[in-house]
Automatic annotation (TrEMBL):
Integrase catalytic domain location: 33-148
GO annotation (BP), single: DNA integration
Highest taxon, organism lineage: Eukaryota
Protein name: Integrase catalytic domain-containing protein
SUPFAM superfamilies to which the protein is assigned, alphabetical: Ribonuclease H-like
Pfam families assigned: rve (PF00665)
InterPro entries: Integrase_cat-core (IPR001584), RNaseH-like_sf (IPR012337), RNaseH_sf (IPR036397)
Sorted UniProt keywords: Endonuclease, Hydrolase, Nuclease, Nucleotidyltransferase, RNA-directed DNA polymerase, Transferase
Gene3D superfamilies for this protein: Ribonuclease H-like superfamily/Ribonuclease H (3.30.420.10)
GO molecular function (one): hydrolase activity
Amino acid sequence: MDNISQVIHNCETCAAIKQVKWVKALWYGGQWLKYRYGEAWQIDYITLPQTRQGKRYVLTMVEATTGWLETYPVPHATAQNTILGLEKQILWRHGTPEKIESDNGTHFKNSLIKTWAREHGIEWIDHIPYHAPAAGKLNGAMGYLRLP
């Protein structure tokens, strides 16, 4: 266990408010155990009721080791909006990740995304659609965003 996890685990205040969580591997077999914070993300779009600004889709991005959630509302789920959201919410705030995992949506699986990822040195991984273990922490985070 790394030092940060140990400090949080031993923190009396954290224990009192029950926010102590152990960092777990995201993939089967702990493939992301070697990564540090911000190096691996899972992304997908969620559809919500349209806002007054015309934004109906939300790009949801979950950091693999901690489950940290970033969101970026957009009017349309496109490759251009995906890149803009990734740059504003992940690259500018958390640095360039090593891996990004998504489903096989057309807004993720196209030449524009492939070129952008290659130019930034990011490995883009397509996970199994509609398969909860493959989506890891992403499905849990998206559940918080959906309306009842």
